[in-house]
Description:
Two copies of one chain form a homodimer.
Chain A: E1 6-11, H1 19-32, E2 38-41, H2 44-48, E3 53-55, H3 56-59, H4 63-69, H5 91-103, E4 106-113, H6 115-130, E5 136-141, H7 157-175, E6 184-190, H8 197-200, E7 211-213, H9 221-232, E8 237-243, H10 275-287, E9 290-295, H11 299-302, H12 309-327, E10 333-342, E11 345-353, E12 369-370, E13 375-376, H13 378-384, E14 396-397, E15 400-401
Parallel strand pairs in A: 1-2, 1-4, 4-5, 5-10, 6-8, 6-9, 7-8
Antiparallel strand pairs in A: 2-3, 10-11, 12-13, 14-15
Helix pairs in contact in A: 1-12
Amino acid sequence: MSIKGNIIIGQSGGPTAVINSSLAGAIEASKAAGIKKIYGMHYGIEGFLHEDIIDLRQAVKDSDDISLLRRTPSAFLGSCRYKLPKIEGNEEVYEKIFSILEKYDIQYFLYNGGNDSMDTVKMLSDYAEMHNKPQKFMGIPKTIDNDLPVTDHCPGYGSAAKYIATSLKEIMVDNDCYGPYRTSVCIIEIMGRHAGWLTAAAALGDNKPDLIYLPEVSFDPDDFIKRIKELAKTKNAIVVAVSEGIKLEDGRFVCELGSSSDKLDAFGHKQLSGVGAYLAAKVSGETGIKARAIEFSTLQRCATHVVSLTDSDEAFNVGYLAAQKAFEGNTGCMITIKVTSRAPYLVTYDQFDIHEIANVERKVPLDWIINDGTYVSEEFIKYARPLIMGELEPYYSEGVPQHLSL
Amino acid sequence: MSIKGNIIIGQSGGPTAVINSSLAGAIEASKAAGIKKIYGMHYGIEGFLHEDIIDLRQAVKDSDDISLLRRTPSAFLGSCRYKLPKIEGNEEVYEKIFSILEKYDIQYFLYNGGNDSMDTVKMLSDYAEMHNKPQKFMGIPKTIDNDLPVTDHCPGYGSAAKYIATSLKEIMVDNDCYGPYRTSVCIIEIMGRHAGWLTAAAALGDNKPDLIYLPEVSFDPDDFIKRIKELAKTKNAIVVAVSEGIKLEDGRFVCELGSSSDKLDAFGHKQLSGVGAYLAAKVSGETGIKARAIEFSTLQRCATHVVSLTDSDEAFNVGYLAAQKAFEGNTGCMITIKVTSRAPYLVTYDQFDIHEIANVERKVPLDWIINDGTYVSEEFIKYARPLIMGELEPYYSEGVPQHLSL
């Protein structure tokens, strides 16, 4: 393995609670390999195009900084939602990128993100191949949505699932505190526009919600109300977990039903209420039962106060391995996780052609969705349980968790 | 101190993350005093009226159970929102309560709650005095709202404040991840209908929100928009913490503005959007800046995965002392916390006449609200900081926190 030149690492797309563990892994691998300059892209490829570059040996000095980095939410380097244009007809963008790479003698380019970010790795490695450029481009998987193909699961998912299972468990106990003296329905809206992995995590607590609706199967509002009425005959505190992306049989998002054109907000805009708020209003309106909605919102991806240690370690490893594989001369690949045994939980890592990964979405298998589309099976629990195991405890100071910042 | 008969403990009102620590304290004091039967009210005074009574020596067996109880959210015994009717004309309700007390030889009655629950303690101790009944009635303070008078602060507040400060800090870092490439406004809606203690906790992180609005002072929507526009000239990620209970100068709740009569939901009901959603729509509509709202919702009171150890210990102590004071023959009082020094943080406990406490609300001092009603002062920080210090770590099993249940 002969190392030439420098490395740069970028973070892209919506952050996860462990995206910075992958950065920590890539930094540690680069230090171990004796790379001279370890650069970070400030705000991903978008910032890189403005030559906004960070010296990571300065920004992350020692092992204390690495530990704190692993406990820092959001993208430490800053992120972006910038998608590279197709190569043909946009050569000037690529020429600019490669001229900056050459200017800083960057031979290794790691990009940490989801489907769109893997597309960036694909385009750059394709361009390098077309033009005989020596730089190596590797993808580091990341997404709370868990929708990247090939890899068994994505770093970021385990911690989001742990946050959801933990918070839902607490809300369910709270919700039940008035016992037989009050009947109520609580709708928990969970992220996931197309894939139901996050919503399925609602089944990971030891107290279970009554209904779980994923976007993989179509949602029947009338059947939903029928089930609520049936549940209310024997239960007082009914809890429903629902993906933000559930759709009707005709393909419309359920949340669109809550935003008919006659519902303009005070500023004349069509109001998009969430699916949770819509369903809570529907339950109250059609059953008379008190109902409310809770949205877990951004905390699903940034609550570093509840991080799965398994997830954090795997995130670190994929970052480390992406760098190592690049140093070995590999390019145009993403690191993948292969689970060789679920009990005991054992994994190996590999790399896979980025062309098979970029822009492909992986959904929850349909045979894991049971009870006429209202629950998830034991197969899902067996799949997801190991991913939420262990805790990376925050470092508290002055009563709040501490983070590393640039 | 001569102990006669048995004790009963009840939990009432909205739970807190440490209400069960107070229960643990009362149980431990009762065991230490050698009380034969330690009873719990199943669903507060409402369940008690149905003679729904729990044997707490069975339900909380040993020190392991006590440790787990302190890490359990919601009201372990179940709670209620039942307010006793006034004594005059409703003697039969009181006769029923005292007949049940006599049936179980209950001499000590502890009730853990906020303003309404202290009213229950007041009525029962008044009735006992009027009718020469021997039973002792003591109040244990509890409320995330921190609005009980006399006591320096209320158990439950510190943990809710720690959850808010922690989650807000994470959301703020997340919100800032696109840097100069995206301007956005994030409105965080925090509990507190009349008192701003919880919203003020938004100032406890080391990264601060830009604006903090409490219900103690009136809210000017035009000035708010002006400030947002001004902030947007120099900042990309603007964060505003707002109490659900902020009001206009004319006394109307700001959230009412988002629910004009022409905005009916799909079921013909007047739609009450939260103040956060309303303000986010207002910002988008009037400035063109992307804005969204996040509601911390129920997790503010039930997130036992972020508990202040200081708060949990104080909750335990007020529970313990309420029992001890009752055994000493005191009645018609609530335990209070007196802070004798804020640095180092030192407290003593006392008891105070329940008549001065029941139904009285304590708000944030007006001179702690600064910058024309858009921020809180350093005095607040000094007041609240010690209350969020220390962590009571959850016990995780199978990847999620474990709780004790009946």
